[in-house]
Design brief:
7-stranded mixed beta sheet; binds S-adenosylmethionine; alpha/beta
């Protein structure tokens, strides 16, 4: 069993993204996920997971219970150790310094040497308490009766509507937080509507970006998704209707992407992609918001319907982010809608993230 410490405030989305690196992801408590299998290499590339590793055990959110658990837990590690405790979102009201001290004492009593600066192994104690967040979609279910929520895919552990948990686990992987420092405004080419790097990273993961995969962004704009995709090791292909965007995104990639990153950017129409059938493993589509970016089509419906129809020939999977639901258009184009996750950006802007699969391919899963 593995644990995941989620970053940010949107646990259902973090859990959804984590399915790119782990299987059977569940939300155990606010900010804490569990999984049955975990790829440490892929987990290191997750945007919404801060750290992950193997579970020692979990108990209620008190230092005394955590101590009792650690005193009897099987430990198959050797070498120096450190304990790092966190009270996630300050929800459990636990003094984390006392927790680190007391749990460190248990490990010392069990014969381990503590090294706070450069330990061979770090034990994480995650304390969390409170209601588990549901997908934002469930609050708006009446508005969108067709909505398939990502929460439907993610288990919430059976016992707990309001869990009170201390999870103890060894740290196997910590997030490379470098993407958070690449603000779109610091790039040579910036436009309003450039995507936040953490969201771009999460969408890339959901689309299947990894070494050996080819991912297409058919409306690439300034290239934020292309950049994160190459950082995940994928070959990225960007298309945009405006030459200003293809030139600008090329400029961004040339100055920021790694020298050995594999990418290509072409000017073209997302409704008639200049790509062979099955040329890619996935697509990631950031649909223009009518009031913000240019639409090179009759209207937004024409653009999205055309792009979804063209996409299904090119790859078996697509992740579509938009300011509204495009479930009907996705189904009309032949896609199976695996889930839609709604993220609230601010009062008047929600983002709907659709995970689409080609029906034949979804049967295999
Ligand atoms: C929301 S923006 C993409 C923003 C991008 N993710 C970023 O981080 O900069 C949508 C893009 O779709 C492009 N676009 C509009 N109509 C298009 C079409 N028919 N084919 C391809 N691209 C199109 C626009 O030029 C715009 O760059």
């Amino acid at each position: 069993m593995y644990w995941l410490e989620f970053a940010g405030e949107d646990d259902p989305f973090a859990a959804l993204e984590a399915t790119a690196a782990a299987s059977d992801v569940s939300i155990l408590a606010p900010g804490i996920g569990t999984a049955r299998a975990l790829s440490p290499e892929r987990a290191a590339g997750l945007a919404m997971t801060r750290a992950a590793g193997s579970v020692v055990g979990h108990t209620d959110a008190s230092i005394a219970s955590a101590r009792a658990l650690l005193e009897t837990a099987a430990i198959d590690h050797e070498g120096t150790v450190a304990v790092r405790a966190r009270d996630l979102r300050s929800s459990a009201g636990v003094d984390t310094q006392s927790a680190e001290r007391e749990l460190g004492t248990v490990l010392t009593d069990r014969g381990f040497e503590v090294d706070l600066d450069d330990p061979d192994h770090t034990l994480r104690a995650l304390f969390a308490s409170g209601p588990i967040a549901r997908d934002h979609a469930s609050e708006n279910a009446a508005e969108d009766p067709l909505g398939i929520e990502s929460a439907d895919l993610i288990d919430v552990e059976a016992n707990a509507d309001e869990p009170d948990v201390c999870l103890l686990g060894w740290v196997d992987v910590e997030r490379d937080a470098a993407f958070g420092k690449r603000a779109p405004t610091d790039r040579p080419f910036f436009q309003p509507g450039s995507m936040d790097p953490a969201l771009a990273r999460a969408l890339g993961n959901l689309a299947g970006a990894r070494p050996g995969a080819t991912i297409v962004d058919p409306m690439c704009g300034t290239g934020g998704l292309l950049l994160e995709g190459t950082l995940l090791g994928a070959r990225m292909v960007g298309v945009d209707a405006q030459s200003k965007m293809t030139q600008g995104s090329r400029e961004n990639m040339e100055s920021i992407a790694a020298a050995d990153a594999d990418w290509e950017i072409v000017r073209g129409d997302a409704r008639r992609l200049p790509l062979a059938d099955d040329a890619a493993d996935g697509l990631v589509v950031d649909v223009p918001y009518e009031r913000q970016s240019a639409v090179a089509a009759d209207d937004l419906d024409d653009l999205v319907e055309g792009a979804l129809s063209a996409a299904i020939d090119v790859a078996p999977r697509a992740v579509v982010v938009a300011d509204r639901s495009w479930i009907d258009a996705a189904r009309s184009a032949g896609w199976f809608v695996k889930c839609v996750h709604r993220r609230r950006v601010h009062r008047s802007l929600n983002r709907s993230i659709h995970v689409l699969e080609r029906p034949d391919d979804s049967l295999d899963r």
